[in-house]
Specification:
The chain is α/β, with parallel strands linked by helices. Helix content is 50%, strand content 13%.
């Protein structure tokens, strides 16, 4: 199987060297069944080893994927959205308790009005599907929409409230969807809430420490051991956080993948987990 892994790597490297579109080469190999055999081998490698309890993913590359096929950007977003349900199922099957998805940032509002409108329509559609999804009830997944929700259309805010209310008593698994999210905005919002509680006498300044501060973040509702992601994955080949979970990522492991989000496969998740398992986490010690 290691030979198969080396062969796949060689073919991908050769494609890049020859100037062949690597994304199209991967699509051909996916159809050929080569990846299915590789996936089974990867799964055997990661099972039985420490699994990340919280995986966060920056869903990047939708627009570039669409551009590659001559499509409008929102078609890429739709293709990426279809991948999310698969991802959630993969993570749950592997025993990952918490998944956080970076779907739409505060900066994304600067895109063209048409693209933003299409994204809002898509988010509403997918949240409605998630609300009716059997996987949420069967696996007892608590869903939380994190970000500056006041920036979203009213109907989308209402739908977010409904799905949060519906799942509020679930404790087995957690799904955070970051919409209208910014890491700096999250920290500023937490500071404002703390300042308000201090002004009202609910909190003394000398009581403020990291543990208290974390409770004011969007992820403060999570059990303490699940608030910080163990592993952060970003697709599309970009190697930056773009403001994602700036406080929570202090000791996270990072994995940057050269694959557009609509192309994301189970083997990419397994590869990232294998990379995580090979690292030694010291937490500053």
């Amino acid at each position: 199987m290691r030979l198969l892994e080396k062969l796949i790597s060689l073919l991908e490297t050769l494609a890049k060297w020859l100037g062949i579109d690597i994304h199209k080469v991967r699509a051909v190999m996916l159809r050929s069944g080569v990846y299915k055999l590789y996936e089974r081998w990867l799964e055997l490698q990661v099972k039985g080893k420490p699994m990340p309890e919280h995986v966060a993913i920056i869903l990047d590359g939708n627009r570039r994927w669409a551009r590659m096929y001559g499509l409008n950007p929102w078609i890429g977003h739709r293709a990426g959205a279809r991948k999310v349900e698969n991802l959630l199922r993969w993570c749950l099957d592997l025993g990952i308790r918490t998944v956080t998805l970076y779907a739409f940032s505060t900066e994304n509002f600067r895109r063209t009005p048409r693209e933003v409108a299409e994204l809002m329509r898509l988010l509403k559609e997918k949240l409605a599907e998630l609300k009716e999804s059997d996987i949420i009830r069967e696996r007892e997944v608590r869903v939380k929409i994190i970000g500056r929700l006041n920036l979203l259309p009213r109907d989308l805010r209402e739908l977010a409230r409904e799905i949060e209310e519906m799942t509020k008593d679930y404790r087995r698994h957690f799904l955070n969807i970051a919409i209208a999210y910014g890491g700096r905005a999250e920290i500023l919002d937490a500071v404002r809430k703390i300042a308000e509680d201090v002004a009202k006498g609910r909190l003394r300044p000398d009581e403020i420490d990291e543990e208290v501060f974390e409770k004011y973040l969007y992820t403060g509702y999570l059990p303490p051991e699940l608030r910080d992601p163990d592993l952060i994955i970003r697709t599309s080949g970009e190697e930056r956080l773009s403001g994602f979970l700036l406080w929570q990522c202090a000791y996270s492991e990072f994995c940057f993948l050269d694959i557009y989000w609509p192309e994301f496969r189970r083997i990419d998740l397994l590869r990232a987990i294998r990379t995580y398992q090979m690292r030694q986490r010291r937490f500053g010690r």
